[in-house]
Amino acid sequence: MNTIAQIIVLPSNFTPPDARAHPTFSYSVPAKLEGVLLPGHFVLAPFGRHAAAKSAGGEARLVSGLVFKTLEVLETSRVYDLSYTGEIKPIHDLLDPQPVVGQAQLHLAQWMADTYLAPLCECARPFAPPGQTIHSDLEYALAPGAKSPARLGSLQAGIVAAL
Questions:
Q1: Residue 38 pLDDT more than 90?
Q2: Which of these, 6, 49, 58, 92, could form a disulfide with 54 (CB 3.0-4.6 Å)?
Q3: Backbone φ and ψ of 86, nearest 5°
Q4: Which of 19, 3, 2, 4 is nearest to 124 (CA)?
């Protein structure tokens, strides 16, 4: 049996247009979190791919989310969406050792989403601790083969060195 967690992804400053159609996203629970992960836990999970990272063969960006529920399944390759043929990504990390949202708040968020036809992520966001939304929307990198200008100030040289 494999454990799958349904995660309410909490985007930092926008609600995805399909948030109502896809209220939660499925992630596999890594071995280090088996038996530890509970509904209401605050997690860090890979989500989508940046266009710049995709062209460079990069990894998915990491976003924060709340565990909505966990499920035991026989096969993780096709959990809900039978048209999805990709691999289910694992949760990256647990951000807080204790659940930050209780069962009552998760049920209330679900009720609000169902009653008012609102995205679940927007209904769950008020229950998440303030200021803890983690996102990585921008990624900067030097263009492949780009030459550094001959004259750089100390600040510019430090930025180029960091990239």
A1: yes
A2: 49
A3: -80, 180
A4: 19
Q: What is the dihedral of CA 50, 55, 59, 61, to 10 degrees?
A: -10
Residues 121 and 141: their CA atoms lie apart, in Å, by 31
Q: Using CA atoms, how far apart are residues 149 and 132, in angstroms rounded to an integer? A: 39
Q: Any alpha helices (H) in the chain, and if so which ranges?
A: 51-55, 103-116, 120-124, 154-162
Beta bridge partners of 1: none
What span, in angstroms and rounded, lies between the C-alpha atoms of 18 and 141?
Answer: 30
> Would you place residue 82 in the very low, low, confident or very high pLDDT band (cuts 50, 70, 90)?
very low
Assigned token pair, 129: 């601790």
**Residue 53: left (phi > 0), alpha (psi -120 to 50), or beta?**
alpha
User: Can you tell me the distance from the alpha carbon of 145 to that of 51, in angstroms, rounded to the nearest whole number?
Assistant: 19
